[in-house]
Automatic annotation (TrEMBL):
Family annotation (InterPro entries): Cyt_c-552/4, Multihaem_cyt_sf, Multiheme_Cytochr_ET
Protein name: Cytochrome C554
Record bears the keyword rRNA-binding: no
Swiss-Prot/TrEMBL keywords: Signal
Domain called Cytochrome c-552/4: residue spans: 33-118
Species of the source: Candidatus Ghiorseimicrobium undicola
Superkingdom classification of source: Bacteria
Length: 176
């Protein structure tokens, strides 16, 4: 009997610990929610800046004849818009559990805010974003070269080198 109680107690402990970890994970909210606060010119219009980059069109470009040709040459079989080897760098949250994707999240948005800044559910509130330390504690990532080279690396069939200091200013979107 004591053995059964011990097993039951340990089992319940694992269940409740697992639930608390799952509840602590940040959800991906999607670029539309980010744009609600980040599209005013007075605040730097980060959304407009993102729209002008290749990141915004990363998923769409996987549907092009060029992407299909590149995939074929790289030995990737199947539609690039459906193959993990391509999606891991052409959409945000590739491989994330569906429970971590908010209803407004769309893979078609490509490489959006949360790819570089982290899932936004817990830092999106204005009261959190106004305090950088609070936002970082809530999951905000301030991108570094290490974030970029997760995709901009030799595993990419189109890789031609990556110079962070040269490329980052092209996508930078600071608040004025």
């Amino acid at each position: 009997m004591a053995k059964k109680s011990l097993i039951l107690t340990i089992g319940l402990l694992f269940i409740f610990c697992g639930l608390s970890v799952a509840e602590g994970e940040h959800k991906y909210i999607g670029v539309k929610k980010c744009s609600m606060c980040h599209q005013s010119d007075a605040k730097g219009n980060q959304y407009k800046q993102w729209l002008s980059t290749a990141h915004a069109k990363a998923y769409e470009r996987l549907g092009s004849p060029e992407a299909k040709e590149t995939a074929e040459k790289a030995g990737v079989s199947g539609n690039p818009q459906e193959v993990g080897q391509c999606l891991k760098c052409h959409i945000t949250a590739y491989g994330a559990d569906g429970s971590l994707l908010d209803s407004g999240f769309k893979k078609e948005d490509g490489v959006q805010c949360e790819t570089c800044h982290g899932a936004g559910s817990d830092y999106m509130a204005m009261s959190v974003m106004q305090d950088r330390d609070k936002a970082i504690a809530a999951g905000l990532i301030m991108p570094t070269e290490e974030v970029c080279v997760k995709c901009h690396n030799e595993e990419s069939p189109n890789f031609k080198g990556f110079n962070f200091d040269e490329y980052y200013p092209k996508i930078a979107h600071p608040r004025p």
